[in-house]
């Protein structure tokens, strides 16, 4: 049968023989175009457990594929390719290759939780999306997402000083995500501060920015938090089989 | 009281329940079963833990057998079949194959069902590959205590596929009905497999899941949520082998993709066929069968358990796929109808 709508088929699954003769008939070129069957040949049983080991993914095994989440989804309304129901299915069966095709859109979940309130089985698809994006990063399939960069700067600041150093976090975030440091809105904000703040406060802010003083008694608290975080990270790496590789 | 006994044919859950109810009400009961012992499918086939009580079949149904066997009002004939059934309501005579005659007030048919024979679906590998088994065989593996093992070499399977609707819902083999209990039984079996062998992954291939009523939470949801059983929407096209493992082929309808997945064991969730004896039973007792081949039952609005022949009642899986609990309830209902009939006769006589 001729292939009428090639655009519906993924290019790598369209095969054409440059020179092919069948029963004496030359079918070279587009005459021999055929579609490669994409057969599922095995299940990767580890994948569901890996996602379930990451925060938010715990209830993925409950999904019964009703599609309520996808139907409710904010992002799906804009991009029909964004399909939490489908990804949950791929993960549960371990169809990794298939999931990776969508790796550049999975992180786009806006955490609105509309899916969470639509899901009859309490899967918390929003959490699963978060866990999946996290999994893609940990496995090195996607670069760190902007929110991961933000989380890291935020975390560093807290662990180090016990304080949220907003200016520093913001600048690091802009740097790491490759955005210009001179943002017009930021400059306007700083100008406003300089104009309105008493000099004493400005001097104190400056001193804090340079000296980075710790909250009193923070050394032990910070270390405990850091220990806990490292422990959780090690647990996740173990669950994903990344500890041996490292 | 000149009451003749009530004849009950079939000593499975339905017949045992009818016998108990009638005997407890003070009536003589004659219980005839062609098998060498009472208990019906759960006992004869060695089922494991029952839905929904989780009690072992040998305890639960075994208890029903003991209760009936110990009742002095009940006379039991095992290894027996009715060959001739004549007379009128209130004055029937049944002749057994060995020539014995039984006078009966009325009769209750509790002759049950026959398990679907998977050989009739050769594309699913039963009879060709030893590791393709039925739910009955898995029940036996569990109830015998041997555990879940591949019949070919005794290994514990890493991966088990349960195929639903084998012998049900299939025009190709003339079986349009849903066997009602096999979804729930399969979910139950899947959980038992996971419990006995936590490293064994279980996949259930389904078209619809019909774990009706309260079975939804206790079986379908629980099997997914606690036992992590996986459900895949696909009707399997064929089961073959690559020489080492079984290969299950079909279409995963949710991702629109062909599948060819290796498995160690494939389980057929076999359905409940009409009893193979139903044509004979129909002729002997003069009762009509419905278009599927089960014993026809009138609507329940006027009288319960009524067949097409006055004075002859029917209950349990003889009427179509039924659960044990429903078969038991129907057994009691049939006994009640038989007792009512006798009561009417007595009242008329008194006037
Ligand atoms: C694999 C499997 C597992 C199941 N597990 C469950 C479960 O866990 N829970 C549940 O609720 N249901 C279960 N069921 C369904 C259950 O088997 C039936 O509901 C139940 O057996 C019906 O009882 P019955 O007495 O009507 O018939 P049967 O159990 O079939 O008993 C019929 C009796 O009649 C006798 N008989 C038959 N023909 C004649 C004849 N011509 N003359 C004399 N005697 C005759 C037979 O020997 C038998 O003793 C399961 C079914 C299957 C296939
Ligand atoms: S939380 Fe994410 S997946 Fe859920 S509805 Fe919102 S955007 Fe969609
Ligand atoms: S709404 Fe819940 S159960 Fe339904 S497909 Fe989405 S995650 Fe699965
Ligand atoms: S109960 Fe389930 S497995 Fe059995 S016939 Fe019905 S749908 Fe199929």
Using the CA coordinates, give the radius of gyration of chain A. Answer: 25 Å
CATH topology descriptor of the largest domain in chain B: FAD/NAD(P)-binding domain
The count of DSSP E runs of length 2 or more, i.e. the number of strands of chain B, is 18
Spatial gap, N to C terminus of chain A = 51 Å
Based on CA inertia axes, which overall geometry of chain B fits?
A: elongated
* Radius of gyration over C-alpha positions of chain B, nearest whole angstrom: 22 Å
What count of structural domains of chain A?
A: 3
Strand order of the largest sheet of chain A: 1-4
Give me the CATH superfamily of the largest domain in chain B: FAD/NAD(P)-binding domain
Assembly form of the protein: heterodimer
Main beta sheet of chain A: 2 strands, antiparallel
Major beta sheet of chain B, specifics? 5 strands, parallel
H/E series of chain A: EEEEHHHHHHHHHHHHH
**CATH architecture label of the largest domain in chain A:** Orthogonal Bundle
Q: Biggest chain pair contact, residues each?
A: A-B, 21 and 20 residues
Overall structural domain count of chain B:
2
Average pLDDT level of chain A: 90
Whole-number mean pLDDT of chain B: 95
- Residues in helices of chain A, as a percent range: 40-55%
Total beta strand runs of chain A: 4
CATH superfamily of the largest domain in chain A: Alpha-helical ferredoxin
């Amino acid at each position: 049968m001729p292939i009428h709508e090639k655009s519906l088929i993924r290019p790598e699954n369209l095969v054409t023989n440059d020179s092919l003769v069948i029963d004496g008939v030359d079918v070279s070129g587009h005459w021999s175009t055929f579609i490669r069957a994409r057969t599922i040949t095995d299940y990767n049983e580890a994948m569901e457990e890996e996602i379930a080991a990451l925060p938010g993914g715990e209830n993925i095994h409950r999904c019964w594929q009703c599609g309520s989440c996808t139907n409710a989804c904010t992002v799906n309304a804009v991009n029909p390719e964004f399909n939490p129901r489908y990804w949950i299915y791929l993960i549960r069966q371990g169809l990794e290759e298939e999931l990776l095709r969508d790796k550049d859109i999975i992180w786009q979940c806006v955490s609105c939780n509309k899916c969470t309130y639509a899901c009859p089985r309490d899967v918390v698809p929003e959490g699963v999306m978060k866990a999946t994006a996290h999994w893609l990063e940990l496995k090195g399939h996607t670069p760190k997402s902007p929110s991961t960069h933000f989380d890291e700067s935020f975390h560093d600041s807290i662990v180090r000083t016990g304080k949220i150093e907003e200016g520093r976090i913001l600048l690091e975030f802009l740097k790491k995500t490759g955005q210009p440091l001179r943002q017009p809105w930021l400059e306007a904000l700083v100008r406003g501060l300089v104009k309105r703040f008493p000099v004493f406060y400005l001097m104190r802010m400056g001193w804090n920015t340079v000296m980075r003083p710790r909250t009193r008694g923070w050394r032990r608290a910070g270390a405990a938090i850091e220990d806990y975080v490292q422990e959780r990270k090690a647990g996740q790496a173990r669950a994903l089989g990344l500890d041996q590789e490292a | 009281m000149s009451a003749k006994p009530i004849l009950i044919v079939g000593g499975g859950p339905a017949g045992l329940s009818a016998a108990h109810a009638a005997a407890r009400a003070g009536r003589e009961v004659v219980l005839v079963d062609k098998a060498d012992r009472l208990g019906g499918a759960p006992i004869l086939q060695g089922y494991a833990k029952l839905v929904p009580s989780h009690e072992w079949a040998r305890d639960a149904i075994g208890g029903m057998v003991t209760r009936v066997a110990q009742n002095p009002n009940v006379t039991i004939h095992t290894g027996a079949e009715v060959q001739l059934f004549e007379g009128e309501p209130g004055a029937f005579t049944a002749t057994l194959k060995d020539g014995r005659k039984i006078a009966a007030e009325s009769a209750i048919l509790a002759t049950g069902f026959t398990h679907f024979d998977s050989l009739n679906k050769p594309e699913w590998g039963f009879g060709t590959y030893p590791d393709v088994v039925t739910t009955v065989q898995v029940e036996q593996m569990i109830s015998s205590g041997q555990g879940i093992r591949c019949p070919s070499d005794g290994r514990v399977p890493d991966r088990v596929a349960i195929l639903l609707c084998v012998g049900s819902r299939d025009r190709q083999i003339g079986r349009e009905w849903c066997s009602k209990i096999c979804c729930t039984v399969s979910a139950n079996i899947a959980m038992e497999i996971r419990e006995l062998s936590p490293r064994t992954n279980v996949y259930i291939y389904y078209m619809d899941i019909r774990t009706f009523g309260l079975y939804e939470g206790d079986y379908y949801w629980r099997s997914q949520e606690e036992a992590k059983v996986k459900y895949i929407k696909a009707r399997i096209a064929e089961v073959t082998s690559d020489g080492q493992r079984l290969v299950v082929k079909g279409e995963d309808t949710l991702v629109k993709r062909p599948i060819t997945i290796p498995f160690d064991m494939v389980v057929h969730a076999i359905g409940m066929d009409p009893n193979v004896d139903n044509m004979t039973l129909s002729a002997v007792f003069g009762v009509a069968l419905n278009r599927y081949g089960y014993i026809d039952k009138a609507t329940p609005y006027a009288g319960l358990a009524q067949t097409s022949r006055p004075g002859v009642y029917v209950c349990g899986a003889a009427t179509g796929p039924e659960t044990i609990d429903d078969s038991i309830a129907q057994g009691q209902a049939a006994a009640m109808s038989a007792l009512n009939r006798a009561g009417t006769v007595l009242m008329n006589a008194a006037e």
